[in-house]
Write a structure and sequence with these properties.
131 residues, alpha+beta, 8 strands
Amino acid sequence: MITDPIGDFIVRLKNATAVRKASVAVPFSKLKLAVALALRKSGYLGEVSEEGSGIHKTLVVELLYGADGLPRINGVKRISKPGRRLYAKAREVFPVKYGKGLMVLSTPQGIVTDREARQNRLGGETLFKIW
């Protein structure tokens, strides 16, 4: 049993890019799918697809690499954890790594990036930072 599914998801992405895997498969959930789609829209991930059915459903995520072979994901930091939830108001959402990174938030409008949260003046639970 996994107590932190988002933490597990982002660590799997980071570890897979460290060993230059083309894709990674993780147990499916709607939250992981929403996070993966937000990362895909921001250019950190490639294709996102669902495989299997029922209890054996998995989420297959394609990893992206640059022309020089370096992974698009260089680092990940989990912010809000199951033991300590951290929330940010709309005016407390700032760029990550001077705009080179991305923060993913869970808001009443769904999973959004820091850019979308600032644009739409949304606050919520800060899930993680990625750069």
